[in-house]
Amino acid sequence: MNQILKTNSFEPILLNKAEGSWIWDTHGKKYLDCESGMWCVNLGHNHPRVIHDMKKQLNEIIHRNKGFLTPITLEAAEELLKFFPNKYDTLTFLNSGTEAMEFGINFAKKITKRKRVLSLQDSYLGAYGTAKSSSYTSSEDSKLRIPYPLCDSEQCNCLEIYQPIIDDVFQNYSSEFACFVLEPVMVSGGVYKPCKQFIRYICEKIQNSGGLIVIDEVTTGMGRAGYKFGYQLFEIIPDVVVLGKALGNGYPVSAIITNSFLESKLTPAELYYVQSHQLDPLGAAVVKSVVNVFNEEKIVERSKEKIQKLKDFLWSLDQPFIKEIRSYGMIFGIQIQPYNGMTREEIILKFKNQFLEAGILIGYNVNREFIRLLPPLNIQDSEIEFLKEEIIRVFEV
Ligand SMILES: Cc1ncc(COP(=O)(O)O)c(C=O)c1O
Predict the structure, then answer these.
(1) Centre of ligand 1 from the C-alpha of residue 127, in Å
(2) Is residue 98 in contact with ligand 1, taking CB distance under 6 Å?
């Protein structure tokens, strides 16, 4: 593997086939993919309809010069805009979540002619640029990443407690904020969802002060958080929505979605943005296909029962090394605590290896001390049963 830069660590197996919730290695061993790749294949790997539509597009046109559009790009845009529960009327297709987040934040900066970005403490918004500097993975601008209450109750008093923090931040920076960037459920940060009242209060403050709400739906979008989009958890209307990952179900396509009345505030020179594969027809064909599958197979509606099954099971676990279980939609986090002389890290790595051995790919974050399950939204009932059995077996320490 030395021919590959070690930008991260790699498991000593090679994968060469995938279908539905499963991935196979080169020795023919199969694994239930409870990370959905990188949380991308909400429809399962190689969904036959998406593969069919990609092949069709491959035979027609996959790429073109920036000065031209294609019919499939317009169709994909129309289908995706219709997929939203509230009205947006314009978008562009890009390639990665980070790229789309950078675009979304810069769009807000240009519209407001302001520079500062407000985010929450455990957000992960991207691998570089402002998206990274507003994430927990960077120490930059940390004073503008505010802590938040975790609460599912509508009648809570969280806001009373946290209001001074928010008010303090706004007192100092309100005229400088270009946007509030929200990851509706902080997934890589530890599976945390902030209190609804708290989020609604910040959103009101930011909009009253002339800033925009930019929602990072790269992970929570396309049904992952139990709704089509994670922002529906808070009943807010964002100005800009960013999609990635599951939008392409494994193919690298992302999008920023907004309204033309915001676009019209920018001159063509301010709006100018070009990269080689923006709006490419192959990515557009994938988006159109993915949205069609969501609609026709009622993916979000049908995922609810599966989510409940997994939730009921995980919440019934009562092992001494489990500190807490958190879940929102098809996003499950198991917080680990030291047990029997083992550190959290030892427990997490032990489980990761045992699951691998048992034919299950799980997610984990040693620094944040949790393991994670984000299987495809259309995971089969028999696969849920297999997962449950193996969790019981592996957790018998
Ligand atoms: C919430 C969120 N935003 C942005 C990104 C960045 O997306 P990408 O890795 O496609 O650049 C990620 C990736 O994990 C993410 O989880």
Answers:
(1) 7
(2) yes
Ligand 1 atom closest to the CA of 244, numbered from 1 = 10
pTM over 0.90: yes
Alpha carbon of 125 to ligand 1 centroid (Å): 6
pLDDT tens for each residue of 151-201:
878 788 898 899 999 999 999 999 999 999 999 999 999 999 999 999 999
User: Is the CB of 126 inside a 6 Å radius of any atom of ligand 1?
Assistant: yes
341: tokens are 């002389």
The two beta strands, 363-365 and 212-216, are: unpaired
Domains, the chain, ordered by start: 15-33+298-394 (3.90.1150.10), 49-296 (3.40.640.10)
Question: Is 255 near ligand 1, meaning CB less than 6 Å away?
Answer: no
Backbone angles phi, psi at 149, to 5 degrees: -80, 145
Residues 342-356, mean pLDDT to the nearest whole number? 97
Q: Are 48 and 56 in contact (CB under 8 A)?
A: no
- DSSP H helices, 317-397, are 344-358, 381-394
Extract the runs of DSSP E, i.e. beta strands, from the chain: 15-19, 22-25, 30-33, 90-94, 116-120, 145-146, 177-182, 212-216, 240-243, 254-258, 322-327, 332-336, 360-361, 363-365, 370-373
Question: What are the tokens at 29?
Answer: 């061993």
Question: Which of 85, 57, 89 has the alpha carbon at shortest distance from 73?
Answer: 57
What element of type H or E holds 198?
A: helix 196-208
Counting from 1 in the atom list of ligand 1, the atom nearest the Cα of 183 is 1
Q: DSSP letters along 1-58, please?
A: -TTS--SS---S--EEEEEBTEEEETTS-EEEETTHHHHT-TT-BT-HHHHHHHHHHH
Specify the ligand 1 atom closest to the Cα of 254.
10
Cα–Cα distance measured from residue 143 to residue 145, given in angstroms and rounded to the nearest whole number: 6
User: What is the C-alpha separation between 248 and 245, in angstroms, rounded?
Assistant: 6
